[in-house]
Amino acid sequence: MLEWTGAGDGIRLMMLVYHDDAEREYAYGPAGKLPDTKVGTFSEALMTEAKKKGWNIISMKKDWKVIFPFEKK
Questions:
Q1: How many CB atoms lie within 10 A of CB 51?
Q2: Do 1 and 10 meet the contact criterion of CB atoms below 8 Å apart?
Q3: Which of 4, 17, 22, 47 could join 31 via S-S bond, C-beta 3.0 to 4.6 A?
Q4: pTM here?
Q5: C-beta separation of 67 from 60 below 8 A
Q6: Strand 56-59 vs strand 15-18: parallel, antiparallel, or unpaired?
Q7: What is the predicted pLDDT for the residue at 73?
Q8: Can you tell me the distance from the alpha carbon of 29 to that of 41, in angstroms, rounded to the nearest whole number?
Q9: DSSP class per residue in 10-41
């Protein structure tokens, strides 16, 4: 889907949410040496491809101040 979105002319936004915050949500990989879980997968191959193709990787741990509304800011 990200390849399809990136094809063609004009401005495009390709991004992946990297679930790397085990304290506030889930953390799963195996990218970044995170656990490979049944909840989801974010492989090293996907991380490499995303970086190579210039896709935005949104880190829940680094980029989100709040994940759930009941969290303290």
A1: 10
A2: no
A3: 47
A4: 0.83
A5: yes
A6: parallel
A7: 63
A8: 5
A9: S----EEEE-B-TTTS-B--BGGG----SS--
- Give average pLDDT by consecutive 10-residue segment, the chain, 73 residues: 90 95 93 90 95 95 92 70
Helix (H, G, I), strand (E, B) or coil at 58: strand
> What does the block give as tokens for 17?
């949410």
61: tokens are 């741990």
DSSP type of residue 67: S
Q: What is the pLDDT of residue 35?
A: 92
Residues 6+ apart with CB under 8 A from 16: 2, 42, 46, 50, 55, 56, 57, 58
